[in-house]
């Protein structure tokens, strides 16, 4: 069977989605526990611990920019043609997942922890960036892509649950003061990640090139490359990244994604500190509260239904509003400390996880449709480019947010290794958790009100692309289609489906 005739089944979708056991699990553990692990068991200050995450993610973000372009052009060599330009990186990434174990070793110096964390970040990027493009490679059908994205987020929810539940079990078993629990946790997940990534490699395929496309690609790859051509190719890559911001829907999508996920990062990074020092409950109880992320698994199914019925914009609004109410409730618990505090905390944490699941579900369900919006402008398929830009800004924002959290904690009076903290340090933890997270969510919520890409507008866009591909005249466009295309792209209709216009404006972002 030709690859273009293959259907995306439930089994295919699950196999594809297993990579997000790593994507959802590894960084949930890192976000919730790594700062705590560094400051409690390794002996680093909050600023030192935060700087490791920040430096590694900035370096990794820069490297990630080139990974997208690398995978877009990887068919030019034999490995890409044999294993696939995207899937090859899943194949080599599977055994490299074992580097995750190295993060959780104690007794090393600052440079060891910086190097090992940077190493894992790069390995994760080598897997996640090409993997994120596969739905666009495998099918153009909205429902099939939604099936894949829903399976992905369902599995990501499972990964998030395991990433909070398993550490809680291990900490309860080994004790709150035993670092061995963290090492065992790292080893377990490293093996799990390796297996899941390999299954994803075996379960997926890529878009099939026509003989003409493959011939042109090979001819281009055999051309001798001078230094000036190499420099020009780098400039072209950078220009391509800048050009993504010309797409109006992508600008809004990226802003919503960055602000909302950074809000989630701030919450995750401070929540265990909030539990241990502000509420005076154990780290194991904090882990159990986070393990209510299991609620996100059935919520993912609901999110998939709502995504198609009410659109991503409304799903964003529900998610952010729910989380804001829960954050205010956490603040109230800290102020009042009711006698039934633990029970109330579990109720609030459960509702929070519903909103959190919707927050995580929506952006990566929107992403597969962004390259379609770009295609009607540039006549190109640039999935890897958009995935790399999203990854770059995501990692950069995490780096900045983590560094800020580290500075805020340290200058707010937090002292490493102490079982109790000063009132000033506790207030700093509380305000960072509540106010910091809410402000970021409010910004994302405001932008979500203006986001217009949904199932209906996407169908209009794709139909117009097919009409233009079949030599349809731009002068024959109907008013509704013209309005939708202009709203989604940010271009005047006369300038879409025009490679020269797209090329001439590549460096402009206005």
Automatic annotation (TrEMBL):
<keyword id="KW-0472">Membrane</keyword>
<feature type="transmembrane region" description="Helical">
    <location>
        <begin position="285"/>
        <end position="308"/>
    </location>
</feature>
<feature type="transmembrane region" description="Helical">
    <location>
        <begin position="429"/>
        <end position="451"/>
    </location>
</feature>
<dbReference type="InterPro" id="IPR020846">
    <property type="entry name" value="MFS_dom"/>
</dbReference>
<dbReference type="InterPro" id="IPR039672">
    <property type="entry name" value="MFS_2"/>
</dbReference>
<protein>
    <submittedName>
        <fullName>MFS transporter</fullName>
    </submittedName>
</protein>
<dbReference type="Pfam" id="PF13347">
    <property type="entry name" value="MFS_2"/>
</dbReference>
<dbReference type="GO" id="GO:0005886">
    <property type="term" value="C:plasma membrane"/>
</dbReference>
<feature type="transmembrane region" description="Helical">
    <location>
        <begin position="340"/>
        <end position="359"/>
    </location>
</feature>
<keyword id="KW-1133">Transmembrane helix</keyword>
<feature type="transmembrane region" description="Helical">
    <location>
        <begin position="111"/>
        <end position="131"/>
    </location>
</feature>
<keyword id="KW-0813">Transport</keyword>
<feature type="domain" description="Major facilitator superfamily (MFS) profile">
    <location>
        <begin position="1"/>
        <end position="204"/>
    </location>
</feature>
<feature type="transmembrane region" description="Helical">
    <location>
        <begin position="21"/>
        <end position="43"/>
    </location>
</feature>
<keyword id="KW-0812">Transmembrane</keyword>
<dbReference type="GO" id="GO:0015293">
    <property type="term" value="F:symporter activity"/>
</dbReference>
<feature type="transmembrane region" description="Helical">
    <location>
        <begin position="88"/>
        <end position="105"/>
    </location>
</feature>
<feature type="transmembrane region" description="Helical">
    <location>
        <begin position="49"/>
        <end position="67"/>
    </location>
</feature>
<dbReference type="InterPro" id="IPR036259">
    <property type="entry name" value="MFS_trans_sf"/>
</dbReference>
<feature type="transmembrane region" description="Helical">
    <location>
        <begin position="385"/>
        <end position="409"/>
    </location>
</feature>
<feature type="transmembrane region" description="Helical">
    <location>
        <begin position="254"/>
        <end position="279"/>
    </location>
</feature>
<feature type="transmembrane region" description="Helical">
    <location>
        <begin position="315"/>
        <end position="334"/>
    </location>
</feature>
<feature type="transmembrane region" description="Helical">
    <location>
        <begin position="180"/>
        <end position="201"/>
    </location>
</feature>
<feature type="transmembrane region" description="Helical">
    <location>
        <begin position="152"/>
        <end position="174"/>
    </location>
</feature>
<dbReference type="GO" id="GO:0008643">
    <property type="term" value="P:carbohydrate transport"/>
</dbReference>
């Amino acid at each position: 069977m030709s690859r273009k005739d293959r259907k995306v089944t439930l089994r295919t979708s699950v196999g594809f989605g297993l990579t997000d056991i790593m994507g959802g699990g590894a960084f949930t553990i890192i976000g919730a526990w790594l700062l705590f692990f560094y400051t409690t068991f390794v002996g680093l200050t909050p600023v030192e611990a935060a700087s490791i995450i920040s430096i590694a993610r900035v370096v990794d973000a820069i490297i990630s920019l080139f990974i997208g372009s690398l995978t877009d052009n990887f068919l030019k060599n034999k490995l890409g043609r044999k294993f696939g330009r995207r899937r090859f990186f899943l194949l080599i990434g599977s055994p490299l997942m074992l580097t995750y174990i190295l993060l959780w070793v104690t007794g090393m110096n600052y440079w060891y922890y910086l190097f090992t964390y940077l190493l894992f970040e790069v390995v994760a990027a080598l897997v996640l960036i090409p993997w994120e493009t596969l739905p666009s490679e495998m099918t153009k059908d909205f429902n099939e892509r939604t099936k894949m994205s829903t399976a992905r987020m369902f599995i990501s929810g499972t990964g998030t649950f395991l990433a909070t539940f398993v550490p809680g079990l291990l900490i309860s078993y080994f004790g709150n003061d035993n670092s061995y629990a963290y090492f065992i946790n790292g080893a377990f997940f490293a093996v799990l990640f390796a297996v899941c990534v390999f299954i994803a490699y075996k379960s997926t395929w890529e878009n099939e090139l026509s003989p003409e496309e493959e011939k042109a690609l090979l001819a281009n790859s055999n051309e001798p490359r001078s230094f000036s051509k190499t420099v020009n190719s780098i400039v072209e890559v950078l220009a391509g990244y800048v050009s993504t911001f010309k797409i109006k829907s992508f600008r809004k999508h990226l802003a919503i994604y960055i602000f909302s996920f950074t809000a989630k990062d701030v919450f995750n990074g401070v929540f265990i500190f909030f539990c241990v020092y502000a509420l005076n409950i154990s780290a194991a109880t904090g882990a159990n509260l986070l393990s209510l992320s299991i609620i996100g698994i059935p919520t993912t199914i609901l999110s998939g239904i709502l995504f198609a019925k009410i659109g991503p914009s409304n799903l964003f609004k529900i998610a952010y509003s729910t989380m804001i109410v829960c954050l205010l409730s956490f603040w109230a618990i800290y102020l009042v400390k009711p006698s039934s505090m633990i029970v109330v905390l579990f109720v609030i944490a459960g509702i929070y996880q519903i909103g959190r699941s919707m927050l995580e579900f929506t952006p990566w369900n929107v992403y597969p449709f962004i390259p379609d919006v770009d295609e009607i402008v540039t006549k190109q398929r640039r999935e890897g480019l958009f995935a790399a830009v999203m990854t770059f800004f995501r990692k950069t924002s995490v780096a900045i947010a983590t560094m800020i959290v580290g500075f805020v904690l340290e200058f707010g009076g937090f002292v490493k290794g102490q079982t109790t903290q000063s009132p000033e340090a506790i207030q700093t933890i509380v305000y960072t958790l509540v106010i910091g997270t809410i402000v970021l969510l409010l910004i994302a919520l405001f932008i979500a009100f203006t986001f217009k890409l949904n199932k209906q507008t996407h169908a209009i866009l794709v139909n117009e692309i097919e009409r233009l591909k079949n030599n349809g005249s731009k002068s024959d466009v109907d008013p509704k289609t013209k309005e939708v295309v202009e709203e989604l792209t940010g271009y005047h209709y006369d300038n879409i489906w025009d490679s020269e216009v797209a090329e001439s404006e590549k460096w402009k972002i206005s």
